[in-house]
Specification:
The protein is an alpha+beta fold and 124 residues long. It is 45% helix and 34% strand. The chain has one domain (8-123). A hairpin with a 2-residue loop joins strand 2 (77-86) and strand 3.
């Protein structure tokens, strides 16, 4: 007679299920971290586009201070500026958009007489 008590098959199934669940858990953690890193990369790119465009605006405004809307194109996206002239302060709205479609906006006041930023704030 054969010894068919059934110990090996259920043990193998339990070990395989434990390995499958641990692999699923690790994969889910990896994908979550990957999404987080990708989102951080987009935020850093948008932040750098906004910072570069502020400097470009200052150079542009000192040369030709008359346009109401200006678009700066960069390697990873574009920044659209909407300029409102209010006496000696200039109110500027920036909208940065990556090639992937992610957007971020910022606003600031620029003092023409001192050539300095008065206030700067970002709007998501």
């Amino acid at each position: 007679m054969n010894n068919e008590s059934g110990f090996t098959y259920p043990t193998t199934l339990i070990i395989i299920l434990l390995l499958f669940f641990s692999l699923s858990y690790a994969t889910n953690g990896y994908l979550s971290e990957k999404r987080h890193v990708t989102e951080q990369q987009h935020l850093l790119l948008l932040e750098s586009l906004l910072q570069i465009s502020v400097v470009d605006f200052i150079h542009f405004w000192n040369e030709t201070p008359q346009e109401i809307t200006k678009v700066f194109s960069y390697e990873h996206g574009t920044v659209t500026l909407r300029i409102e002239n209010e006496e000696e302060l200039v109110y500027v709205t920036l909208v940065a958009q990556l090639d992937s479609g992610h957007r971020r906006a910022a606003r600031f006041y620029y003092n023409e007489s001192t050539n300095e930023l008065e206030e700067y704030w970002e709007v998501s």
